[in-house]
Model the fold of this input.
Amino acid sequence: MNVRAIFIDMDGTLLKSSNNISGRNMEAIYSLMNQGVKVFLATGRHYEVTAPYHKEIGLRTPMICLNGAAIHDPETGRAMQMKTVQLNEERFHHLTTENPCNVIIHTANGLYCKETTEEIDYWTRVGQIPPRYIGDLRQANYQDVLKYSVRTGVPRPEISALFKNEAGVINWNDGFELLAPNVSKWSALKSLLRTYRMSPAEVVAIGDGPNDIEMLRHVGTGVAMGNASEEVKAAADFVTGHHENDGLAEFIERYLLQKSYESYVI
Done:
């Protein structure tokens, strides 16, 4: 494969469920970088909980955060590009208040949430920045929203469908996310390819979630993780191993490294 860049999802792909990068994944990424391949992170996370892993690997490429709603400079952390989403707030809060759920609002200035959770506590620990507001979001004074995340605990496509005329919708097993129309990891990836003068044909993307489907379909080589849903796997050219079993490294070692690579003996 003539590959110049790889875009890697974080949760369920790069990271184990412990939120750690395995030694084997790290080694595979280093080997790829030594071949001159540019490595990018493309995640649904916000910048503050992406940057520590970006630094741990030693990357110097921009970060695609919040499913493509923001691209951050690798040196300064400054947002190079932001796409805000405009909703009918009154209607949004009415619908999410009458249905039991947590709501997380990612803005250009921080995080606002209805209630805190184990995940938000982890974000605070890793990113070192607590939510700006916790409570009734109808009383919160926020602006420049990049992503709404509605956590219902179960799929609720009948609720998310009510927003499809004003936002891009991503349905998950535990709820849904809302972005500006036409914003995705793929839209951000395209923007970076123009900057780096690369063709999609020269790119690999790897991920496991519904927010990865578009980029897996459109790059030269789309790779789904073994832990991905059937819908995600159907969008990919290859399916690799489970994220708990270093599926990322497995694909890199098998298809992208030029010289023979000796697998780690655990």
Observations:
- The two ends are 29 Å apart (CA to CA).
